[in-house]
Design goal:
It is a single chain. The protein has 170 residues and is mainly alpha-helical. The protein has helices at residues 2-10, 17-24, 28-34, 38-63, 66-84, 88-97, 105-123, 132-146, 154-166.
C-alpha cells in the first residue's frame, strides 16, 4: 500500500502494477491476490488516505483551539484532494460501473466538519448555526477552483477566508 500511495501521488494511476509489486518486494501474483484489479488497488489507497484524513481530526482538536485545528485540517484535506487528481478517473469509472463501492466521502468529511464546528461553537471560536454541509460545499468549491491554478498559495488564501468567515463577527 505504501508503494502504491507513493506511486499514485507522484505520477498517476497508470503506473504499471508490476513496478509497484517490484518496488514493494512482492511478486505480481501476490499483488493481484490482495488487489485483483487496478481499480481495487486504487480504491484501497483512496480509502486508506481518507481514513487517515478523517482520523486526524481528534488529534488536532487535542492540540489546537478548534478554529486553528479546523484550518490545519483543511490544509490536510486540500492535500488529500490534490493527491486524488491522479487517480480520480479510475475511481469514477469503477464507481459508475458498479465495480467499486460508491464512497461515503462527503458524509465522512461533513461529519468531521461537524465535530470541528461543534467544538468551535462551544468555546466561541466559531459562529453558532454553521451548517457542516455548507462548509463541505465551500471546501469543494475551493478545491475545484484551484485545481489547475498555478498560483501556489491561492488555495491557502481561500481556506483562510473560509475559516475567517466561520469565526464570530466582531
Amino acid at each position: 500500500m505504501a508503494v502504491a500511495r507513493r506511486a499514485f501521488t507522484t505520477t498517476d494511476d497508470s503506473v504499471p502494477l508490476e513496478s509497484i509489486a517490484r518496488e514493494a518486494g512482492v511478486g505480481i501474483g501476490t499483488l493481484y491476490r490482495h488487489f485483483p484489479t487496478r481499480e481495487a488497488l486504487v480504491e484501497a489507497v483512496y480509502a486508506a488516505e481518507l481514513d487517515d484524513l478523517v482520523g486526524s481530526a481528534s488529534g488536532l482538536l487535542d492540540q489546537f483551539e478548534p478554529d486553528v485545528a479546523l484550518r490545519v485540517w483543511m490544509s490536510r484535506y486540500a492535500e488529500f484532494a490534490a493527491r486524488k487528481r491522479g487517480i480520480i478517473d479510475t475511481l469514477r469509472a469503477g464507481w459508475s460501473s458498479g465495480r467499486l463501492v460508491t464512497p461515503t466521502t462527503r458524509e465522512r468529511i461533513t461529519a468531521v466538519l461537524a465535530t470541528f464546528i461543534a467544538a468551535g461553537e462551544r468555546v466561541g471560536a466559531l459562529r453558532p448555526g454553521i451548517e457542516p454541509d455548507d462548509v463541505t460545499a465551500l471546501l469543494l468549491g475551493v478545491f475545484l477552483s484551484t485545481a489547475a491554478d498555478t498560483t501556489p498559495d491561492r488555495a491557502d488564501r481561500l481556506l483562510d477566508l473560509v475559516v475567517d468567515g466561520l469565526r464570530p463577527r466582531a
